[in-house]
Amino acid sequence: MQVRVLKQANPTSKKKILCTVMALVLAMVLTSLLIAVMGHNPFQVYYSMIEGCIGTPHRVRQTIITAIPLVITSIGVGIAFRMRFWNIGAEGQILMGGCFATFAALYFKELPGIVLLPTMMLLGALGGGLWALIPALLKAKFNTNETIVTLMMNYIALKWIVFLQYGPWKDPAAMGFPKIANFTDNAILPKVFGVHIGWIIALSLVGAIYYLIYYTKTGYEIQVLGESENTARYAGMNVKKVILIAMMLSGAICGLTGMIQASAVNNTLTMDLTAGVGNTAIIIAWLSNLKTPWMLVVSILFAILNQGASYIQTVYQIPQAAAEVIQGIILFCILGSQFFIHYKVRFEKDKYPVSGQDIAQSKLENKGEVA
């Protein structure tokens, strides 16, 4: 018996929906077994997870706050992924964006908020963009492996923040504790409907990047480069220029996430600023098929899952590790469904030649001499 895996170029919507539903059902079955083993009613736990993320207005706001960085960062990495540039450095770009924004918050805190906040946003985007420009230049100039370079730069950015936290930016009023001073009120993003204005920025980016990708020359060039670099060169595109522009934009958007998190959520800069957002955003971008409207939807679902898992830890005294296993099972099943959406598994019987003539015929067919 032979097993053949065939790629399907354009899977139907019916198949996508069917595979996704089956993955969710499998995830529910597996997590139910785990919850039952821990001595809890699975249906009560699932209800509590929903209640934990949308049960009260406060919980709804917390879910939105959790979703905001996921939306923005997934949009950022999605731009790079569209041209097949594997930007795994969103974590570092977020940190550097937060670092540049913190510089303005610490050294220009006398400015009014209407001036300081836009300055922090611009510097945050600049920090993330410049950090992403380094691997882009190496790729364009020396054809380096962008996956390794962007990944390694995450650690450099993290250690840089640690250095600032323990050194030049250490708050003298913290009684020796290694932390950076909290931002003043004029450096903190205002709230709209009880949630910081990051949600307005996120929605604006969803529309703006969608328009950029599908209705502008730059977006068209990014898509063509993603399909084939040779085609892009044949069409007269400046491939190096497209790589640099796209990566600068990708990093700038991730850097904006750093500014928002530092200003509106943490109110300072810390080494834990990203909270794993950069890595999660990579998964969200792929699950969304690199389409910004779907990134918004998937990010909200991830935020619901995260907030719900945190809630059941408190209500049912479930260990954090067990809650993370539940999240992992659900995520694994959903990611696994992508394989069955884009590939088809076929089982075929082995064909063994039974005579010398059959063997000779088989060899000719393998050489392509006989149709």
Q: Layout of helices and strands, plus pairs?
A:
Blueprint (H helix, E strand, L loop, with lengths): L1 E6 L5 H25 L4 H13 L2 H26 L7 H18 L5 H30 L3 H21 L24 E2 L2 E2 L1 H18 L1 H11 L1 H6 L4 H28 L10 H11 L4 H25 L3 H23 E6 L7 H12 L4
Antiparallel strand pairs: 1-4, 2-3
Helix pairs in contact: 1-13, 2-3, 2-12, 3-7, 3-8, 3-10, 3-11, 3-12, 4-5, 4-6, 4-10, 4-11, 5-6, 5-10, 7-8, 7-12, 8-10, 11-12, 12-13
Description:
This protein is mainly alpha-helical and 371 residues long. It has a domain at 67-317: Orthogonal Bundle (ABC transporter involved in vitamin B12 uptake, BtuC), CATH 1.10.3470. It has helices spanning 13-37, 42-54, 57-82, 90-107, 113-142, 146-166, 198-215, 217-227, 229-234, 239-266, 277-287, 292-316, 320-342, 356-367, and strands at 2-7, 191-192, 195-196, 343-348. The strands form two sheets. It has a two-stranded antiparallel sheet. Strands 2-3 form a two-stranded antiparallel sheet. A hairpin with a 2-residue loop joins strand 2 and strand 3. The protein is globular and about 75 Å long. The two termini are 24 Å apart.
Task: Give a brief outline of the structure.
With 371 residues, the chain is mainly α.
List keywords for this structure.
371 residues; mainly alpha; ABC transporter involved in vitamin B12 uptake, BtuC; two-stranded antiparallel ribbon; 14 helices; globular
Helix/strand structural class: mainly alpha
- Our measurement of the CA-to-CA distance between the termini, rounded to an integer number of angstroms, reads 24 Å
Q: Rg from C-alpha positions?
A: 25 Å
CATH architecture of the domain at 67-317: Orthogonal Bundle
What low-confidence regions span 5 or more consecutive residues with pLDDT below 50?
none
CATH topology of the domain at 67-317: ABC transporter involved in vitamin B12 uptake, BtuC
Mean pLDDT: 90
Helix amount:
over 70%
The SSE order reads: EHHHHHHEEHHHHHHHEH
- Tell me, briefly, the overall form: globular
Q: What composes the largest sheet?
A: 2 strands, antiparallel
Kindly estimate the percentage of residues that lie in beta strands according to DSSP. Answer: under 5%
Query: Regarding CATH, which class of the domain at 67-317?
Result: Mainly Alpha
Question: Total strand count, please?
Answer: 4
